[in-house]
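ligand=2-acetamido-2-deoxy-beta-D-glucopyranose
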Amino acid sequence: MVGIQKRLFFLICAVGVITLMVYILTSKERIVHFVHRTEFVTVVKNVFLSKECKELRSTERRESQFVTFKFSGRLANWMFAYASLLGIARKNNRKLCIGADNPLTSAFVLEDLNVCNTLTCSDDLYEDRPCAFDPRFDKLPPSNITIHGYLQSWKYFIHIHSDVKKTFRFQDWMRNEAHSHLKMYTQKIPHDLVIAIHVRRQDMMLKSSLKLGFKAAPLEYILNAKRYFTRRLKNKVVLYVVVTDDYEWCLKFLSSNDTVILPTGDRYTDLAIISMCNHTIITTGTYGWWGAYLAGGETVYYKNFPEPGSKLDGDTEKADFFPPSWIPLNKSSLLKSHSLFLFFSYFVCVLQCNKHIISI
Ligand SMILES: *[C@@H]1O[C@H](CO)[C@@H](O)[C@H](O)[C@H]1NC(C)=O
Ligand SMILES: *[C@@H]1O[C@H](CO)[C@@H](O)[C@H](O)[C@H]1NC(C)=O
Ligand SMILES: *[C@@H]1O[C@H](CO)[C@@H](O)[C@H](O)[C@H]1NC(C)=O
Ligand SMILES: *[C@@H]1O[C@H](CO)[C@@H](O)[C@H](O)[C@H]1NC(C)=O
């Protein structure tokens, strides 16, 4: 009887442990947090590492080992991941490995692209937060590494800044197309320089996006940013060029004699157009971020993004995401200057009134 109870107890324990393992191993989100807390899976994996892999690790030179990443996303997410991986690989003296299925090759020259699909004997590392710098990647363990994450911080590639710009050189036909497109809309309007305004709205206003903390920047911010540049470049004739995914809205609210709205083109050409302008005003998201980075002039970004207190806000370290030279702006500070003006008028009035009272 006691024997049966014992066996039953062990059986229940075994089922419990197996269920727990399956639970952990089948959920990516949970795995990320679990691994991040303990690096447990890597340790366990290493215990069961094949003899061949162990041998490779002990004999193969560090420089011939690879680093790659696993994730999915759109053009600008890929740009972040690629640039960051380039920076991480350089810092760790590793080779970069990217799958052939990346969307970057359809836009950029990518001179040093090293296509390889899977790494043998690879260890997985998971980033902490998608829009924050994770210093653990500065010093990778001595093995092939697969990084899981978005790697969306300029800090991963600041040391190879000029290489990143060279890497993301648009293919010639795309450059030409963007150039002639831009010229078509700007050549008839006299100007000294062109400032791109990237207005992203469509996917930013989906319920699912709003829930996470994405948002579209308000019109007042864009007008405020324009005011900033117009004032700053007082002696120059500035022409604003709007690149957007919401042509109708921009046409309705942003049209003016110093602003042209470009019809929405394809993602690559539109990005190339932004990169050809002198300065940039961006709204929200990573696409405008990359347009501004490639343009390399002055950049104004929306200060109130991500939505304060949201999940995205928690995932974002603003100082890691926005380069320190970029200028944060909010909605107009007109209100503030108005209140200052009112206060001042009141003050003058009180003085005047007092004078009157005294003279009476
Ligand atoms: C890393 O992966 C590459 C490509 O699969 C392989 O040739 C190499 O031997 C691996 N190195 C180690 C130490 O696992
Ligand atoms: C644009 O319009 C404003 C008034 O709305 C005017 O002051 C300005 O001179 C105009 N600029 C050009 C280039 O025509
Ligand atoms: C603006 O950009 C164009 C093209 O890159 C360049 O030729 C021009 O000198 C720039 N103008 C200013 C004022 O920076
Ligand atoms: C920006 O403006 C919004 C709305 O006016 C305000 O709630 C927010 O606190 C401001 N954010 C910053 C960082 O100044």
